[in-house]
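User: I'm designing a mutation panel for UDP-sulfoquinovose synthase and want to avoid disrupting the core. Could you give me a predicted structure to guide residue selection? Please restate the sequence first so the numbering is unambiguous.

Assistant: Good idea. Sequence first, for numbering, then the predicted structure tokens:
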Amino acid sequence: MNVLILGIDGYIGWSLAMHLAKRGHNVSGIDDFERRKNVESVGSTSAIPILDMEERISSFKQIHEKDISFYEGNLLDYDFLQQVVRETKPDSIVHLAEQPSAPFSMIDREHAIYTQHNNIEGTLNVLYAMKEYVPDCHLVKLGTMGEYGTPNVDIPEGFFEIEFRGRKDTLPFPRQPGSLYHLSKVHDSGNVHFACRMWRLRSTDIMQGVVYGTRTAEMVDDSLMTRFDFDEWFGTVINRYCAEAVIGHPLTPYGSGGQKRGFIDLIDSVQCIRIAVENPPSRGEYRVFNQLDEIYSVSELAQYVVQVGKKLRLDVKIQPISNPRIEKEDHYYKVDREHLRNLGFRPTRRITETVEIMLTDLIKYRDRIMERSEVILPRTTWARGTGERMAEPRIWTKATALPQHSHTAAADASSYPHPTSSFATSSES
Ligand code: USQ
């Protein structure tokens, strides 16, 4: 199949490109490196070093003997987009080219407008390019479980049957998102559904849970790794916990820690997207997949990281901090997720196995995380808005983070002992 990946340079985009190319698909991708720039704009960087796109592609070709084509540009540039679509003639477009951070969208008015403009207008351009040049193409659109919010009833896959005043219908399940980023995805879902109904496009709208992990099967060399964010804005909760654990920063569950979310390993996220690509819906069909493996509360996750950290001789502490977001901390959460399983999705490994792989990978890059450790504690608040800084007492400082001997070795990651050898990272040791 010809697959065009929008946002090929991102955390999932690069992982997916390698997976699909290795599988024999003809993969092209678009990116304008906005994610790299946005992470840089908040003073952070990927904990795992990543190569430039040209170098990534040539390393992938050398190692896996497959080609990936790359086009640099932005979806908001319709001339650019339509030219790429006409040239690559995709059977499937996977749309990952959005600003994906809830806290980033909540910094202030400018970040909110940037997020919604980028995400909603970019998606509209994709829909128009499909309508005009490849109406038979399948759009795999990355939405989010956060579109639904946390209702006090079960969450179906997109639609539910409702009886109201004696009449019945099957309607989109109500959306109650918790950030202006999540809301941009709700607007996208409405536009994609509309394009399927009006223009007979076909689409799978994926309500994905929170993704975690450092590795997929194709990442057999350091040059093929994908980015890994740990800052307040772009790091997701498990990834942040693992980065915190390796530098001796206490894990940071927000509030009471009872918030439940659906989670999925990076390796399974690409597996699921591949399944969606290879099993397209019919013309005019708009279908919704809830893409997650298991549900956990953020406290439970912290416990898992402590447990695995112990195995690796890391002394991991938990220090809950006041919640910068407005969200329920004690709530019902039950989610249907049959569609992908019916098409063959099987989780690759248990969460604790992945956390072990993550901690082992990240220990190698402790100095990079340590250098940017000031981006870990949250400062963007939902309630006060306009980017006002949270007055969170500093509970951790670099100076107390590592035992003296590790500090002196910080410039050379390779001098850190292997996690299974006798060493511990602790603010107390
Ligand atoms: N959280 C903590 N401690 C932290 C970071 C987060 O307790 O250090 C909590 C948050 O308050 C929230 C939960 O963990 O209750 C998840 O937060 P997150 O930052 O990991 O994920 P979220 O903001 O929900 O967004 C991420 C991705 C987004 C994707 C979404 C899937 O950034 O692109 O859409 O996960 S979902 O959450 O299902 O909507």
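For picking mutation sites, this is relevant: The CA atoms of residues 207 and 290 lie 5 Å apart. The pocket of sulfoquinovose-uridine-C1,5'-diphosphate is lined by residues 100-102, 144-146, 182, 208-210, 236-237, 240, 252-254, 259, 261-262, 298, 325, 327 (CB under 6 Å).
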